[in-house]
Amino acid sequence: MHEDPWKGIVRADGAGTRLYSLTHGISEQLLPVYDKPLIYSLLSTLMLAGIRDILIITASRDHAVYCDLLGDGSHWGLKLFYAVQHAPEGIAQAFVIGTDFIGSQRAGLILGGNVSYGHGLVEIFRRATSRTHGATVFGHYVRDPQRYGMVSFGDGGYAHSIEEKPSDPKFNYAVTGFYLYDNQVVEIAKALSPSARGELEITDVNLAYLHRHDLHVEIPGRGIAGKLLHVTEGEIFDVVVDLRHSSPTFGRWVARQLSDRNRLMLGVPAGFAHGFYVLSGMAECSYKCTDYYAPHLERMLAWNEAQTGTRWPLLHSSPPLLARKDAQSSPLLGAEVFE
Predict the structure, then answer these.
(1) Per-residue model confidence (pLDDT) at position 1
(2) pLDDT beneath 50: ranges in the chain
(3) 155 labelled catalytic
(4) What is the pTM of this model?
(5) 287 catalytic, yes or no?
(6) What fold does the segment set 227-334 form as a domain?
(7) Of 287, 292, 293, 325, which residue is the catalytic one?
(8) CA nearest 289: which of 214, 229, 205?
(9) Which of 214, 260, 291, 326 is catalytic?
(10) 63 an active-site residue?
């Protein structure tokens, strides 16, 4: 019988001190996030990556609760196994505890406080799990890098450096709590020396792969942002184009004139391109967005894209003055669109 090349490990053994006193009597991963326990989201991430054999590491007090809640996982098409971490000896200890479970396979580890979301997750996870050697970490753009373990990387996706909570950060990608490793991770973890706080650090595992020039970085898309805007001064012609490839209105556009006089607001759903043409001498717009602005994930659509047929009310029939990034945008056939 074919054996799955990947084994997954979920760390659900933390003390949850940041959520105290909620976690005084219950594991953090059993608390609800919207309509289901957090542990469900952790398992879902591993499932999206195609991992079905999963070891759940718990604290001794919570072991029976997890077994009762999740069982053997067969009702989800999973094979669930359980182990107990009796003392907090670091994240990387998961590979020591899970040595027999991992066997000769590759291993994915997800930490208990992580919820993965964003555009194209399945494709990104599958690309990462297709690698037969090395390690993969997932980066997330943050505005406060002093609070996180940060990673820099080149165009090929190979990591250049890792810094833990840098006082003078030079890059903005934090390492998230989902990691994929080849089978060498077991021996690497066993060879680690405890840090000053007496733990086997996951950063030291990643540094071992970095020094071998075999640490890959993937950047999942953020949740696709929607926005609500209105004009606080001046007047604009605002255009919205549907870039959801699976939508029946893909490539179609709508437009409205917004001004400080008519006080209209325009909602731009997630997955739509948005741009405007200033009709007054100057204009000022105000946005409310469903996610932080992430310039590294911005997509561009040419203003004069022929396929959409957008009709702009150009003043004096002269071409508009474009920002540099807008001048480099693509037609619809060459643009990156959403699912």
Answers:
(1) 47
(2) 1
(3) no
(4) 0.72
(5) yes
(6) Jelly Rolls (2.60.120)
(7) 287
(8) 229
(9) 326
(10) no
